[in-house]
């Protein structure tokens, strides 16, 4: 780390500089405040030790300029007791970090400088952490903004899909045929209004497993289509003549069943355009 010693007496500078011979500090010297400011402009000075009584610019004036231009630099002033009042005022104003009296004790001066530089390092580490925190906060704000935009897009997409699903449900309820759907666990997930015309739906509850209802009767074709993963089709022998077509959904997601009366099926077949695959149309 770089230390700057400022005093208009060359012998004082030499005495101060000798104190740092066995240290790792790089020591610069100046004989005036103006010269000290020139060095501060060229070098990254961590700590300044200056005399108070100097011509042209005294130590407090010099350190006030150092504080203004290099606020992180530690500032220490040396002076006799006659100048204590002025120096205490400068300490209260924050221009001076420490005051040491002349003549100084070498060990006290070295200890003060060592502790001051530890403070300088902690201050720099704190500033670096603050900068990192600013960067992290900026990244967090950017991430939050992107996340909010994705949520908005997803919400809008879900809204559109829900509206489309609502329209599809209303259309299915308008069909004269019954439509029922189960998931891969046999849970009833959909049933249109027309299903009541084909089976007893009083025991069927959306969101619950069909359980034993899949073991017999028209609904057993749903289980068969689930087990075989193939379309099943059957017409009962009753007077009603209910025709049932059950088709497994892709990726074994479940099964959808279509219930209609034979007369309705015949009518649908008769009205199918020429060339169309009638059986495939019923099974889809």
Would you kindly provide a written description of the structure presented here, covering whatever features stand out?
With about 280 residues, the chain is an alpha/beta fold. It has 2 domains: about 1-130, Response regulator (Rossmann fold); about 175-284, PAS domain (Beta-Lactamase, 2-Layer Sandwich). The protein is about 45% helix and about 20% strand. It contains 8 helices and 10 strands. The chain has helices at about 10-20, 35-40, 60-70, 85-90, 105-175, 220-230, 260-270, 280-284; strands at about 1-5, 25-30, 45-50, 75-80, 100, 180-185, 190, 230-235, 240-250, 255-260. Strands 2-1-3-4-5 form a 5-stranded parallel β-sheet, sandwiched between helices. It has a 5-stranded antiparallel β-sheet with strand order 7-6-10-9-8. The longest helix has about 70 residues, at about 105-175. It is rod-shaped and about 125 Å long. Residues about 275-284 have low confidence and may be disordered.
Q: Which residues form runs of ≥5 with pLDDT under 50?
A: 275-284
What's the gyration radius in Å? 45 Å
The major sheet is characterized as:
5 strands, parallel
- Give the CATH class of the largest domain: Alpha Beta
Beta strands, count? 10
CATH level-3 fold name of the largest domain: Rossmann fold
The tally of helices reads 8
> How would you write the strand order of the largest sheet?
2-1-3-4-5
pLDDT averaged over residues: 85
Shape descriptor? rod-shaped
How many structural domains can be distinguished in the coordinates? 2
Structural class: alpha/beta
Could you tell me how far the N terminus lies from the C terminus, measured between alpha carbons in angstroms? 82 Å
In CATH, the homologous superfamily of the largest domain goes by the name: Response regulator
| Residues in helix, % | 40-55%
Strand content: 15-25%
Sequence of secondary-structure elements? EHEHEHEHEHEEHEEEHH
CATH-scheme architecture of the largest domain:
3-Layer(aba) Sandwich
